[in-house]
Amino acid sequence: MSTEVKHRKFNKLFDWFDQSHDGLLTRADFRAMSGLFSALAPEGDQENVSAFEEAFDKWWQLLVAHTGVQEDGEVTRQEFFGVMETGVTSPEPFEDTVMAIVNALMRTLDTNGDGVLSQDEYVRMYDALGIPPEHSGAAFRLLDRDGDGSISHEEFRLAIHEFYLSTDENAPGNWLIGPFDQPA
Questions:
Q1: Strand 116-118 and strand 150-152: pairing?
Q2: For residue 3, what are the contacts with CB-CB under 8 A and spacing of at least 6?
Q3: Which end of the chain is more exposed for a tag (fewer CB within 10 A), N or C?
Q4: Does the reported pTM lie above 0.90?
């Protein structure tokens, strides 16, 4: 993947994670992201809330380990890009952080327990996670690869892989948090 395409995607992700909007990532930003995801879980769903908390904490720990900042430090955009390229997207950390969030998110969003995300369930995620809702319909159609009106767990996982790992600028997964060429 060209560095330019990768940086556009990771730039959007950085902006989304920067919950304090100060141009830096901190432990508080990752806790806020965990809180956004946890708020999607039904009352009493401690299993998925814990999964979100643990995965976002592991992600922050990767940033701390790879940048050398203190636990209460700040990570710059450039540092984030470096860790994303060499740390988070490596197989084991990717599974322990990003995919752990995805698995818990799928369990949380599938409110009727049918094993897939309906468009309503997907749009609910967009709204709750602060992603501009005008993109949710287009993203849903792109991620529903087989056109059956739902996003399966495998389709969702494929979208995540494409967002973080794909070399294809036009991969549907790039729409995971809205068009990656627009700010979060």
A1: antiparallel
A2: none
A3: N
A4: no
